[in-house]
Amino acid sequence: MCVCVCVCVYVQVFLRLQISKPATRGVKLGLTLDLASVGLCAKTSVYELLNFTLQNLRMSMLQTTRDLQLALAVNNFQLDNQLLETLRPVVLSPHNMPSIT
After folding, report:
1. Are the C-beta atoms of residues 31 and 60 closer than 8 Å to each other?
2. Structural domain boundaries of the chain?
3. Among 7, 14, 63, 99, which is disulfide-ready with 29 (CB 3.0 to 4.6 Å)?
């Protein structure tokens, strides 16, 4: 007997992109990407397994004639167990941040 489980993944992204050429000497390109939130939901045909949410992300890139700088900042994140009979619905989140609803 073979049991096959299909997991579907849904991704939701809200973003604002800013591309600029800074007026600083030696800088080729500056790029800033602000994401309000990114959500990832994994489902089988019967159950929703998990929900992963990142909020207020800022990614930036600065390219100069000598190097490339990349930065990523995440303000809040949360990983939720979506199974109905779970004892701990929040699997992972920052200790001092409120739950994302």
Report:
1. yes
2. 8-92
3. 63
